[in-house]
Input
Amino acid sequence: MISTGLYSGDGLEVNETEVELVSHYQPRILIVDDEPATRCAAKGMLEKIGDLQIVEASNGAECLECLSKYSIDVILLDIHLPDMNGFEVMKSIGQWDARIQVIFLTADSNSQFTIDAMQAGACDYFRKPLNHDQVSQIVRQALDSRRSLESPLAIRFENSVPACDPKRASSDFIGISSGMLEVFKRIGRVAKQSLSVLITGESGSGKEMVAKSIVSNSNRSHKPFAAINCAAFPEHLLESELFGHEAGAYTGAHTQRFGRFEQCHGGTIFLDEIGDLPLGLQSKFLRLLQEQRFERVGGNTTVQTNVRIIAATNRNLEEMVAKGCFREDLLYRINGFRIHVPPLRERQADIAVLFEHFLRLAMSEMEKQLEGVSRAALTRLQDYAWPGNIRELQATARQAVINTTSTVLDTAALPSHLRGASPQSKDEEAIGLADGLDNLKHNILRDISTGKEDVYHCAHRELDEILMRHALSRDDGNLTMVAKKLGVARNTVRKHAVNLGWHIRTGRK
Amino acid sequence: MHTNTVLCDLRQVCELFSGDVQLARELLLVSKASLEDCRETVFKSLNPLDTEAIVKTAHKLKGIGLTIFSPCLVHASEIVERNSSAVMGEHIRELCRTIEIVEQVILEWTQHD
Output
């Protein structure tokens, strides 16, 4: 006969003939509403959702009492309670355990309540009448978020690590992937030379960052620098912008103007989207590259300059040459040294570090502190193709910080196109283990580099957790089997299982 | 009587529980008990007039009305909840009549099946 019950923590003796199993944690939901009909409706719907333990409270005081009695995962909380305001109760819940997911319930249609509820940190908001599909979806999401708070984090923000300074952040050029290391090496090789550099790469991949890095590491770092987007100007304006004009050169040109090539004498010019340089201007530009000389628009005087050109494009210039849209001789001239910035999808190793960087920036801007990022969320980010590259990743980080209602950023905070299911082709168990170990590796490297003092203990604890979680899942919670396979005492496994939130069931053979 | 004449949408109540009639019946019985309590509170609050208690009870009744898909109860409760005490009398009587009718519908439905 198998007897079931909650593990009490002590006094449970297991003799040799007993079989001891652990089963998956049964989430507990607390419904707080003074109206029995609402509690009854919510309870009935939750029972239909699945294997949940449901607790009820009719006022704020009872709610807080339940927190001390039970381990609660999600709370459905009425805003108007007889003894206190729902927002006050929410504050106390946060102080008790910030990981509890709170969903507000109300009969009011006032939009201000919704805004206030979300600002207070609610996970979501229901307006009566309740709707089965909506309740089911939102409660499942809240449970997922709650679960993710128990899992080892993929990215963890230590309080001791200072937030990024947004002013300094623009000069931070981040990447640990082999593709980016190659980019850094090439920057190092060419920065001190006066060669023209062509930077290629998809839109948003960080070409301008490469250009800025070349400039800041060059001998011209203290000389003038200008960045021009060739696609942003009509042809005649672009010519004037680059080469300047004489007074009366065209309607509206009342005075003489020095162009960028003149202004940046001794310095560097970054020409973004060089593939969009009109054919008519290409020959003039070629002459400048070859001779460092040009005439202003409408002028006859030849101006001598000394500028270094860094050009960038997301287009295939060789193809454009073949089609006659780009001058071949100009391509050879600007292609003095080429640096290709790989797209983000080819730099998977960079996603976590870049995302962490952008999150720190966003948290600092929004004055919001998160504990970290769940593994599930990071997996979604790493599975995504990032057509908008780093620019898209940065926007995603900002959105995610805004959307996060708890202290851990989980999949629910990601934009909808990133929330879809992960590819199912791979063995999910293996992915879980691999993710855990990758995460551990990342955390160890980070902790060592930041000089953290208890690296050994943290790493040891995290490895224990990863190993136990994996083994318990594989052997369906059979403690004896797990202990035998891992070569540890059954009590050790049991202790870990309880810490991981599994329920203990015991019974005799 | 006001224009919002749907007394209680039983089909929607059943849909709340994916068609589970037993759960729907349970909800309606709990709601009926709450309606009785609320009606009693409103009566007690009339003499002497306790506007605050009446408004609070009207808010509760609106919640019950929304839960059991009773637009007429929601409507009658909202009127009482929003109006000042000077013109409340007639609205309160209307609300009490609506409560009684909804209670009757619930009673018929729960006895019928």
